[in-house]
Design brief:
By secondary structure, the chain is of the alpha/beta class. It is built from eight helices and 28 strands. It binds alpha-D-galactopyranuronic acid (ADA). The site of alpha-D-galactopyranuronic acid has 13 residues, from loops.
Length: 560
């Protein structure tokens, strides 16, 4: 499975995942290699032979094709070297964003695809580091093979805008000429309701020089359409077809979007002009049976549970999520805070020479691939990094500016833990803090929150902006019950979340809250000290999605 809908009718697309590939390790320590047939997508830590393997693993499979082909990898954790018939055609860093490689004029017949995957830590990896979540190894999301003609549509972005005369779809299309000959034709754009007949059409002339790329933009008036919102998540298709001079379709790209607008006004976040109050969970893509490579049914179960808990939003802590999960959020009306990949990196770690480039690549790929998802209402960056230092601020500024150039239709934020020392709130549209009163310190929640909020209003450029609590919670070991209600007991977690949520929900100037976290998740071995079971145990459900006592405590408050 690549997406929850077909992205092509003309372009031939074949899924190369959802099957077994040849797999073998390349141990760096002289130990014996292992070789077995491994599922793609999947994580090698879920198999007996490679449970704790950190190194390079290679996947191989064959396929038949000819001419210009495009291979798209939805996620490889964490560094991929891609070889076609023995020749390297792509390199990519970061497990959480898709990338593609185009090979031109391949011979007709059988080809060998090899993907060597590295999940090691070191200076080469500024973002995948020993952390309070696991970095797995593998081809962890889907793989697609596509056959292209001489010209193809690389990307389509739709920005819904509500004007005095109703809704408009501003459409931006990137088209690429792969041949040495000029191309003249047309681009047919159609906006149509899922399952509906003819929609709103636009036809643009296209001329492309040899080996050139062009960007075309247009506005399609879509007056009588239904808005997307959490309770009625109506989706529309954008179908882009590239036609040759004779009007024949030579390539296409289909995506989904929704008519909705997000903005901030004073201290409110507005969705379609209505004030939004966020009731959410932070969620790692993590499961004891699948690693970070959750199958469709497991993603859907997480969504069902968060909806049962009364949540209207999920935060993709701390990296871009699987497109299939975002498709599920689009269809179910679950709002998404999506963020680039980083967690808790100090200024020293941010000074890694690879850091800024790896962050900005992640931002470009995240927004490039996820732009059309109506469920994503905000972009976040750099969770709990050094937003209290001048150097750190230069990184926050560069990345938030990059987001601004790529997408002017969504607010931007970052989750801070720099208590009364943050200097970056002038760079964002929404101020967000992660706070743990009654867990990491015993300050009463209302006192701590009021003190922090007032400090932001009186001392920072975040004054008057929307304010989100992007993390709050406590730990509990599933099954540990005690009348003393001590820390790590389910009773303590439930009691604490009651006090935390009651205080946050009663704070008049807060626009919402994300509970840390939805489910327990694996952490790196070096984090065992503060993490019993080498897990982050602050889930409302454990890693097998078994509810803890806090489940009802949160549900009562989110469903009020
Ligand atoms: C931080 C961090 C989370 C998690 C949490 C915790 O806020 O953003 O990833 O580590 O602390 O469990 O302490």
């Amino acid at each position: 499975m690549l997406r929850m809908f077909a992205t092509h009718k003309i372009r031939k697309q074949t899924e190369l995942s959802s099957c077994l590939w040849d797999f073998y390790t390349v141990p760096g320590d002289g130990s014996a290699a292992v070789h077995f047939r491994a599922p793609v997508p999947g994580c090698w830590e879920t198999f007996p032979q490679t449970r704790t393997f950190r190194g390079t693993g290679c996947y191989e499979r064959e396929f038949y094709a000819s001419g210009n082909i495009r291979l798209e990898f939805k996620g490889v954790s964490h560094t991929a070297q891609v070889y076609l018939d023995g020749e390297k055609i792509a390199t990519h860093y970061n497990a959480y964003t898709p990338f593609a490689a185009v090979a031109q004029k391949v011979f007709a017949g059988k080809h060998c695809l090899k993907v060597c995957v590295d999940n090691t830590f070191g200076e080469h990896s500024a973002l995948h580091v020993e952390n309070d979540y696991q970095t797995y190894g593998g081809i962890t999301r889907g793989v697609a093979l596509e056959e292209l003609g001489d010209v193809y549509i690389r990307q389509v972005h739709v920005t819904p805008q509500k004007g005095p005369d109703g809704w408009h779809a501003r459409v931006k299309v990137w088209v690429q000429n792969l041949s040495g000959m000029p191309f003249a034709g047309a681009l047919r754009l159609e906006v149509k309701g899922a399952g509906q007949g003819a929609g709103m059409l636009k036809l643009l002339a296209v001329t492309l020089g040899p080996d050139a790329e062009a960007v075309l933009e247009t506005d399609i008036c879509c007056r009588d359409v239904a808005e997307w919102n959490p309770s009625t998540p109506v989706l529309y298709m954008i179908e882009a077809v590239l036609q040759d001079a004779q009007g024949r379709g030579v390539d296409d790209l289909i995506d989904r979007f929704g008519f909705r607008e997000v903005c901030t006004r004073g201290k409110d976040i507005l969705l379609n002009g209505e004030k939004l109050f966020v009731r959410g969970f932070c969620r790692h893509e993590d499961h004891p049976q699948f690693g970070c490579s959750l199958p469709f049914a497991a993603m859907q179960q997480d969504l069902f549970l968060m909806q049962d808990l009364g949540a209207n939003s999920v935060r993709t802590s701390h990296y871009p999520n699987d497109e299939i999960f975002l498709d599920l959020c689009d269809e179910s009306g679950m709002l998404v805070w999506e963020e680039n990949h980083a967690r808790g990196l100090s200024e020293e770690a941010m000074r890694n020479p690879n850091f800024e480039g790896q962050c900005e690549d992640c931002i470009r790929e995240m927004i490039g691939a996820h732009y059309n998802h109506p469920s994503i209402y905000i972009w976040g960056i750099l969770n709990e990094c050094a937003s209290h230092t001048e150097y750190g601020k230069s990184c926050y500024e560069a990345q938030l500016s990059l987001i601004q150039t790529l997408d002017q239709s969504r607010p931007r934020s970052f989750a801070s833990c720099q208590f009364k020392t943050d200097i970056c709130f002038g760079l964002v549209d929404v101020v967000s803090y992660n706070i743990y009163p009654l867990w990491y310190h015993d300050t009463p929640v209302d006192v701590y929150l009021a003190d922090l909020y007032d400090w932001v209003q009186q001392n920072t450029e975040g004054a008057g902006k929307p304010f989100l609590v992007t993390e709050i919670g406590a730990g509990a070991i599933y099954g540990y019950r005690t009348p003393e209600k001590v820390k790590w007991s389910e009773e303590y977690q439930a009691e604490t979340l009651k006090k935390q949520l009651d205080a946050v929900l009663a704070h008049a100037d807060t626009s919402g809250v994300y509970v840390w976290q939805f489910c327990d998740c694996r952490v790196c071995g070096s984090w065992f000290g503060g993490r019993p079971r080498t897990m982050n145990n602050k889930g409302i459900v454990d890693e097998y999605r078994r509810p803890k006592l806090s489940y009802e405590a949160v549900r009562e408050r989110f469903c009020k």
